[in-house]
């Protein structure tokens, strides 16, 4: 009798006793975990959130067509950067030729 009382106070798992691991199931699952997964929203990354916010802003302000027109052709940002780069390179070449021309006359 005393032994049974001690076993109830200090339960020791017997490896021969079948448990969830013996049947190939993980413990802690069940209906509770399924219900918690249903109520959770999917996490959205910062980039996806920013993209969604930008698209919403463009629709609210009605500027999507204006942005497409602005980004096309000569008024586009990348086109302007390329133009400035070419102009800078051309100016450098002109100055280089002038320096070399002056140095060769000395």
Structural description of this entry:
66% of the residues lie in helices and 0% in strands. It has helices at residues 2-9, 31-39, 46-61, 64-71, 77-105. The longest helix is centred in the last third of the chain and has 29 residues, at 77-105. The radius of gyration is 37 Å and the shape is elongated. The termini are far apart. The mean pLDDT is 76.
In short:
The chain has five helices and no strands. The protein has 106 residues and is mostly helical.
List the helices and strands and how they pair.
Layout: H1 2-9, H2 31-39, H3 46-61, H4 64-71, H5 77-105
Considering the chains and any ligands shown, give keywords for the structure.
mainly alpha, 66% helix, 106 residues
**Rounded radius of gyration (Å):** 37 Å
Total helical elements? 5
In which range does the helix fraction lie? 55-70%
Shape: elongated
SSE order: HHHHH
* Major sheet summary line: none
Task: Report low-confidence residues grouped into runs of 5 or more.
Answer: none
